Amino acid sequence: MNIGLFTDTYYPQVSGVATSISILRDTLESMGHQVYIFTSNDPKVGRNVYERNIFRFPSFPFTGFPDRRLAYSGALHAVQIAKELNLDIVHTQTEFSMGLMGKFVAFSLKIPAIHTYHTMYQDYLHYVANGKLIGPRAVKTAVRNYLKNMEGVVAPSQLVYETMLAYGVTAPIRIIPTGVEVNHHVTDEETQELRQQLGLTTQTPVALSLGRLAFEKNIEDTIDAFKEVLAQNSAAKLVIAGDGPARQSLMEHVAALEITDNVLFTGMIEHADVPRYYAMADVFVSSSQSESQGLTYLEALTAHAPIVVMNSPYVRDLITDPSIGVGLDDVELLATALLPYLNKTAQVGDVSKRDAKINEISAEHFGTEIVKFYEVVINEYRTDDERNSDSIFGAFSNPFKR
Question: Which of 37, 100, 207, 303 has the greatest CB tally within 10 Å of its CB?
């Protein structure tokens, strides 16, 4: 089938959403489908640069979140492109500009549209006027309005599913966890080479925090816990891989705790290098409590790195055996949970259960489930006049009205 993915966020922007869309595209194409990405333009991508099956539209930086973009024109052009491509379905990945454009395309061509809800916006409201302009109630109303008239919604986790129900979403919802590439083939030589580049020996106990350095990720809690770790294992190192708006604040926090020699900030890393970072670590750690699907957790798992993270309905479904890791209800327990992995004393449980979980979260399984949902939606799509009269344009009214 011919599939149109509409997203405000895509490479070279770095985010879990961009990674998820890339995985979806690659997996669907490997299954023989044609996938086309409709997204915002990006200053890092030249206007004359060829990108296979990617269509970019004029955009501006999102207020308070400058590395994210919002498209401001091109809807009619998108309809023309989609018509020439003979799209069978629109799959939106954002509730903002490109998502609205995707709905407009679907309505104009009379094809079904579904949506993946990626972001728990109540955890990001501080980016807009320090949280004073938009509140949780407005988010609930906006999301419900956007999803009105959608033929289906993909929830990457039980947490998202429950949130959609609480918001009053009436479209069919299917839980389909985002898959990840499970065949990294990182060699021992590659992991040792990376350790040497970072100034680490083969025996250095290493905890890894990897992802965008944003304030809502609560990375300060990880740093505080690592201060406690060092009191019992002074040789341990914390590698913080990634970049973002919280980096300077985090570096200052490390300096204030006087643990600069034991905490390494790598800055932005290439996507292709990510598997090597997981593979060289003894344990992956995250103190974030805002993850809707936790792609970094899955990536760490596929590299056979145990994870120590904060509990959520999603984490409870993921961590079903000690070989996978530990989910915590209290951030104060982070240091205690990290030490067995760093000291090489952790009892990892039944490794076969970890292997089974890896298969369950594979990109192939993800793609198969998405295609099944597409087929159901397309088969059940209604084209009668009553449906069309229930205008999709309701989503274009003020999205934050009560």
Answer: 207
